[in-house]
Structure formats: C-alpha cells, structure tokens
Specification:
There is one protein chain. The chain is of the alpha/beta class. The protein is built from 9 helices and 10 strands. The chain has 2 domains: 179 residues, Flavodoxin domain (Rossmann fold, 3-Layer(aba) Sandwich), CATH 3.40.50; 65 residues, Alpha-Beta Plaits. Helix 4 links the parallel strand 4 and strand 5. Helix 1 crosses helix 5. The chain has a 6-stranded parallel sheet with strand order 2-1-3-4-5-6, with helices on both faces. It has a two-stranded antiparallel sheet with strand order 7-10. It is globular and about 60 Å long. The two termini are 31 Å apart. The chain binds flavin mononucleotide (FMN). The site of flavin mononucleotide (FMN) has 26 residues, from helix 1 and strand 4.
Length: 280
Amino acid sequence: MATVKNASVFYFSGTGNTWWVAEEICRHLNDEGFDSRAYSIENISAVKVASLIEESSLVGFGYPIHGSDLPQLMKEFMEALPQYPGKDALVFCTQWLWSGDGAYLGASMLKEKGFAVKWGQHFLMPNNVSVSVIRLPYTNNPDRLSAVRQRATRKVKRLVSRIAAGKPYRHGFNPLACLLGSLQRVPYRRYYHRLQNDIAINREFCIDCGECVRLCPVGNLYYAGEEIKTKGNCILCTRCYNFCPVAAVTYMNRPHRPERGEPYRGPIENFNPSILINAF
Ligand SMILES: Cc1cc2nc3c(=O)[nH]c(=O)nc-3n(C[C@H](O)[C@H](O)[C@H](O)COP(=O)(O)O)c2cc1C
C-alpha cells in the first residue's frame, strides 16, 4: 500500500492572491495522493509550525512579491525557523508582473535552515496596488480574474506533477534573475522604512467599523480612544487600504479616487479577507 505523504504549506497573503495559490497547490497535491493543507502564518504558534514541519515530508512557503523582496512578516517567519536538515521544500511567490528572483530569495533563506528547496515557482496574479499615488492598473472584473486564475491553475498543475514525480524544478534560480531582481530590491529596501508610516484614516469617510484595525497583520492600526492611529510599522501589504468598505484609508495623504472604482478586492468575487487572519 502506498504511503500518504504529508505536506504543509505556510503562506503570507496581504490581499488573497497568495492564499488562493496556496490552496490551489494543496488541492492538486491532494489529487496526487498527498495529505496537504495550507496555513496562514499570521495565526499560528511556533510550536504548531514545528510539529507540522516534523510530520510533513514536503513543506511549502508562499508569499507575495514586494519590490522583488519578501514581505517582512515572511522574512521574520523564515528567520525564526530552527534547522531542518534535508527537509524537502517548495517556495513560491505571487506577483503582478515580475520579480526576477522572487522565489530564489526565499529559497536561499530556507537553505540556511537546512531545507532542500527542490521546487520554486512564480505565479502571475492580479496587481493589488490600487493606491492613488502610484497609478498602476488593477481590476476587480470577474472575467479577468477568472482568466488569471485559470492561467495560474495550469501552472500549479505543472508544478504539482513535477513534485509528484520527484523531479526538481526551480524557476528564476540563476545569476541573471538575481541581478535583475536586485535592481528593484536594492532601492525598495532603501526606501522601505520611509514608507512604513504612510497609511492613515480619512475621518471624513470613516464609518468606524474597525475593519482596518482588525485586518492589519502587524497591529499597525489601533484605536486611541475614538480615533484610529498608526504605529508606523506598516508592512505595505495594502490589506487595510483595499478592504476598507468605504475606501477611507489614505496612502501618503491621498484618498482613494472614486473614479478608479473600488480598490483591489482579492482574487475571487466576494473575497473575505478575514480568512487570512482566521485561517487556522
Ligand atoms: C508593496 C508592494 C510591492 C509590490 N511589488 C511588486 C513587484 O515588484 N513585482 C510584481 O510583479 N508585483 C509586485 N506587487 C504586486 C503583488 O506582488 C501581487 O499583486 C501579489 O499577487 C499580491 O499577493 P497577495 O494578495 O497575496 O498579497 C507589489 C505589491 C505591493 C503591495
């Protein structure tokens, strides 16, 4: 009788794209006979992580690309891991357009923890930057989201069939990708700390629902009496900005422009961002 292989996939997702890919990977791994499950790193204890990794023959790590870099929360999660010599690992990132070496970067951190990173992949997902300061195109159109998901599913299937066959595959693990990635990462890291205090609440529109405070993955937003203030430790995930029901969150003092439609609301229709914090 074939033995069932356990897999645990740990992910951080600001606005749902990486959650969706992590779930899709697990769904296809399970079709291939794995017993796998995806876990948000926002709500999980180090003890639980350790026991899941111990019992898994494959460990996955997924994150969105921020300026060809890993989100701070995922970096901290990886840095806190103990050593797992020879444990098979998969690293994937989601990005709108391009990251160069987005998966390699996480893989190199995991290598220091002893992981054997045999699989690395990049998934193109919708852009989640919908702030008025940088006018990047984004969409909530269900047909376009569906097309993006279908393309990602095809890539997931190819990746999972390689995993099931035990064939290593690592995308973007080469010097050119690293060089190109660093062209974006170096300035991003340089300005990151200056950008961490740019979220604010527009009291004129705010309906005091507290959703931004509840959803923030790092407690950057908090109530000071009746007022919502920020601690200046934003990790730029855009969750509060994108999911405020009345678009009352400002970035660099600029409110969301109503003519742009709602901010990006996640990879599926009626996506509920609470699952990113209550996933486990
Ligand atoms: C601060 C920030 C920086 C980003 N930088 C890049 C980038 O360098 N390249 C890219 O293709 N997408 C970039 N994106 C887009 C996201 O990586 C992409 O939309 C991702 O799928 C979001 O995943 P999530 O919904 O799981 O947070 C950036 C997004 C944010 C918020």
